[in-house]
Amino acid sequence: MSIEIWDPHFHIWDISKSTKSGHDASQLFVLNNKPIYSWKEYEYDIKQAGSSFSYIGGAFVEVVSVCHTQISGTPFSEACIAETNWVSSQLEQSQKKYVIVSSAPLENPQIGNILSKLTEYSKVRGIRQIINHDPSWPRNERLGNLLNNQNWEHGFSKLHNFSLSFDLQLNPHQYKKAAKLIKKFPETIVIIDHLGTPRLEDLLGRSKQYWDGMASLASCENIYIKISMLCYIHEDWSNNNVVKDAVYRIIEIFGIDRCFFASNFPVDIRDGWPAERLYSAFLKLVENKYTSSDIKKLFSENAKRAYRSI
Question: Is the pLDDT at 79 greater than 90, yes or no?
Answer without folding.
Answer: yes
